Amino acid sequence: MLRQQNVLQNLIIVLQVILIFFCFVDLSGLPQWVLFTGRLHPVVLHLPITLTLLLIPASLIVQHHPENKLLKDYTDALIHYNALLATLTALAGFLLAANGGYEKDLLSNHKWLGVGVAFISHGLIYLNKLKIKFILWNGAVITSALLILFGSHLGGSLTHGEDFLAFTSEKKQSILIPSITENTTILQGAIQPVLNAKCISCHNDQKAKGGLNMKDINSMLKGGKTGALWVSGDPEKSLMIERMLLDLDDKNHMPPKGKAQLSSVEIAIFKEWIHKGASPKLTFHALADQDTLRKLITKLIESLPKAETIKEYNFKSASSKTIEKLNNPFRHIYSFANNSPALIVEFYLKEKYGHASLQELKDISDQIIQLSLAGMPADDQSFDIISGFSHLEKLNLNATSITGKGIDKLRSCKQLEQVSVANTSLGYDEISSLASIPSIKKLFVWKTKLKIEEIESLRKKFPKIQWDNGYIPDKNELLKLTPPILDDLEKRIYGPDELIRLKHPMPGVKIRYTTDGSNPDSASSTLYTEPIKVLGLMRLRAIATSDGWLTSDTTDNSFFQRSFKPDSAILLHQPDPKYSALGAKSLTDELKGNSPNLSVNWLGYKDSTFKAGFYFYQDKEMKEIIVSVVENIDQYVFPPVKITVKGGDSPKKMTILGTVMPEQPTKNGRKHIIPVHIPISPKKFRYIEIEAIPVAKMPKWHPGAGDKGWVFVDEVFFY
Amino acid sequence: MDNQEKQFRLNVTRRHFLTKAGLGFGSAALGSMLFKDQLFGSSDVQSLPLGVAQFAPKAKRIIYLFQNGAPSQLETFDYKPLLNKMHGEELPASIRMGQRLTGMTANQEKFPLVGSTFGFSQHGKSGAWISSLFPNMASIADDICIVKTMNTEAINHDPALTFFQTGAQQGNRPSMGAWMSYGLGSENANLPAYTVLLSRGRGNGQGVYSKLWTNGFLDSQHQGVVFSSGEDPVLYLKNPEGQDRTSRRDMLDELAKFNASSFENFGDPEINARIKQYEMSYRMQSAVPELTDLSKETDATIKMYGPDCIVPGTYAANCLLARKLSESGVRFVQLYHQGWDTHGNLANDMTMQAEDVDRASAALVKDLKQRGLLDETLVIWGGEFGRTNYCQGKIDPVNYGRDHHPKCFSIWMAGGGIKPGMVYGETDEFGYNVVKDPVSVHDFHATVLHLMGINHEMLTYKHLGRRYRLTDIAGQVVNSIIA
């Protein structure tokens, strides 16, 4: 006896170690057969409940008959087996829970109670060995009994639902709408499904609360204790509607508080149906397209969850080996959906395509439901193969080399619903024979040889087919061309041997331009035939023109002939750190900024003036200086109010060579680069100093009126 | 990643094995129960097969025309005549309900309502109200579903964009396209499953960053591939001068050997991802030039998308390229068009932006439709949030501005199983709050995944100890907009 109990005790210890382990580990990854043993939980669990409860009378009897050895032995055995079974039950419970599908909070409480019971029942073994007071022992036994009772209640709630012990318990039901045709009655199609889901659980044959049974129209017409359910044609006076619209807390509100409530759409459907006379014979057919009731029911159906079902295909699937063998980067074969036998095949890269690539699909000809040969050089012999694809539904032959010879072979594809032959040389006869295949529903015939009148006649001949002949450009709609593009987008400074090249992406477009600042026009301005040479400062304005299109916007760019570079340059005032480019170097590095993006190549000044010095060691005569500045009103950048140029042999020996006051803008105009010319009387200089003064107060029309404006300089040219 | 981890655990040396065995076969048995995949094969309910739709998909591919900077709902699809009536009057506090504002208008003393300067008219069978800025989009009213009740949590561009792309505002999660690539794989192995095209309008712009097309914690092969906006859309795709295709092949084969051996040594999954990327770019050398050649476009195509479509880097050119990529089996083509951030100068900026976008967006839908591809391609048009019904700054008789508004904005979707010709959801008369049928960003993601045949709750990836989804812990499929 003792030995047997020792073995039991050790076994319990081992099992409880595993139990602790189970408490903290995700078990869902265990193999199915292990998880399956969890199903024993509902079988085993009744044993420890019984044994624990049995312990109470057993303990009481032992306490009253301490001399009875046999009784004592039985109770000891009871305590041991109880502990073992409680532990086994808990273990099985964990495995069962790992199968998933239980309500989380409830499950977690149940788990901890179960584990608690297992440990306490184990503890009872040791308590029993200590000679403790009866009262303590009884307390322990009763606690364990209470725990197991509460725990098993939670377990019951898990399997039978939380409201299992509540007297009013009903299962929640979802609305199941039968398939609706025009001959379906509103009663069958909408009224009864909603009643079945939300009312019938209290108003049925077995249980007719308030004397009302809602199982069918005849029972409903009988009404309940309070009277008839509705007054035909008058929803406002109908009892049913009244009850539905009562305040939720009103005791007469239906369905009662705590039950699934009717949505506003559902109530509106009842109202409208009663309004229309609540006739059981009213069908959808009798409702106009825009009828309120029809709209409401459509809305109800739309709001119901749609089943995520796999479209049923009942044919055999191809072996995965075959699919794998046929699959390659240029012929992609894949399942329509997980576990579906249906296959989709798509071909890519026309250089890799040959008739054989299609022929090889014979092994899966019963499984292909969609095939795309778009863009492949597939020809008419393809129809021989495709006609063998017995379950083909959708075929894409866009931009293939088919001419339509033998297209009627597709007739043997009994499921074929949609064919695209856009961009092929199919004509009326071929398309007509394609359309006569009875299963066809949609045809895409854009850019075929079909003429507009032919399409119209086909539409009439096959009215059930959805025809799509695509976009036809409107000859009267004139669109504006895009402007010409500079071959080198960045380059603005050209040497004597370099030329500006213009281009346009559209073939047949003419480019015309001016270099004198005037607006180019499509008639008289110079036609661009050869690259353009830059002389001095040149403003190039160009347009693109073509028949059938509106003339493009004008591109407008200034180009500079390469000047002679100073030998060194210094900034006498530092620019704002955010707009400092490469410092003095930027002024002569031949990199022009652009007018919208001021953060590259530009030196920006606001709090001080722009002031820079340039040294020349070469013996060259200078006759003109150009300072390149920008106007970008949105970003508070104005032309300088004044530019002063001084020159001489050194910074200490200078005279003023010229001042210019650039024209100030009077409104927010375009963002553009302004080359400011400063002509000087020809002379040799060793040192030149240039200062440009920003606007001190921006004008009234500007959002920043009164504040300082910015000056931006990107390059200075010396000629 | 799960698999890699298991593989790594299986990589046990004899010494390793003996050490472990020292702990007793009991723990080994327990171990085998816990990592049963290594011993018993996989039957884990949680790990769904990748590379195939979970249930019948409605759409195979997505083209997302992201309008970066947030176009105003009040000048596009949400017609609010009350704002014109109450022009200049104060926004009632009962409407604002303490909604937090951005730093740009939070300190404004007044919130004067401002009506749209652009006219609205009804289009299509659904009678959708569409602003006069978008005549071409109006012409496809019967093909699109306008959702007027999108709403988001973020009130600034970067978090809002990141939220839309990745389902979280912080920017550490994989973006939508990466999830699609991970869940459904590539349709055409010669092109990346996820490509990104960028363009910039003339309006006030906001940045786009590579974190928006990140693979996050997924393998890097799922990262979005940006096509550059220059004339050479995929940089460095051509063979270096003097190298032909055969020697390129030889070089890649040798390189793959090196990579494979370093994978054996280190087991870093990134090495495998890199091998796959080299292989793909080799195949892209054949696939890409045909797609990006704009010189063969017909006059009809140019007229359809607008003359800009043959100027690389424009929105129109990107729409055209998106159609070609999608037609060639690119799972997810993501466009970003910058310039919608109309804090001021709205009348002017909106006009320019609409000019760039209207024709090409509509053309894309029409083009897919005439090829029979619209039913399997989902096109999405929209920004990251909406704009306020009150004016930012002073109301000018001809111009005004709108700040960021997260509580309602409009997007449209077309094709790919979306119900055509419908308007979903209602906003209040002020265009400020949702009155009926709100759609959160998570709901939007759940719906898009659903259309692709994926249950958003089942597409998960375990990272840092927990499973992640695109919709994280939220999201409900909007059944009413599904055909």
Structural notes for this entry:
- The complex is a heterodimer of chains A (719) and B (483).
- Chain A is an alpha+beta fold.
- Chain A folds into 5 domains: 159 residues; 116 residues, no CATH class; 149 residues, Alpha-Beta Horseshoe (Leucine-rich repeat, LRR (right-handed beta-alpha superhelix)); 75 residues, Immunoglobulin-like (Sandwich); 155 residues, Sandwich (Jelly Rolls).
- Helix content of chain A is 31%, strand content 18%.
- Chain A has a 7-stranded mixed sheet, with helices on one face. Chain A has a 5-stranded mixed sheet with strand order 9-16-15-12-13, with no helix packed on it. A 5-stranded antiparallel sheet of chain A has the order 17-19-24-21-22, with no helix packed on it.
- In chain A, helix 14 links the parallel strand 2 and strand 3.
- In chain A, helix 1 packs antiparallel against helix 6.
- Chain A is extended.
- With 483 residues, chain B is an alpha/beta fold.
- Chain B has 2 domains: 39 residues, no CATH class; 387 residues, Alkaline Phosphatase, subunit A.
- Chain B has 15 helices and 17 strands.
- In chain B, strands 1, 4, 5, 6, 7, 8, 11, 12 and 15 form a 9-stranded mixed sheet that branches. Chain B has a two-stranded antiparallel sheet with strand order 2-3.
- Chain B is globular, with a radius of gyration of 25 Å.
- The two termini of chain B are 36 Å apart.
- About 2% of the residues of chain B have low confidence.
- The interface between A and B is large, with 63 and 58 residues.
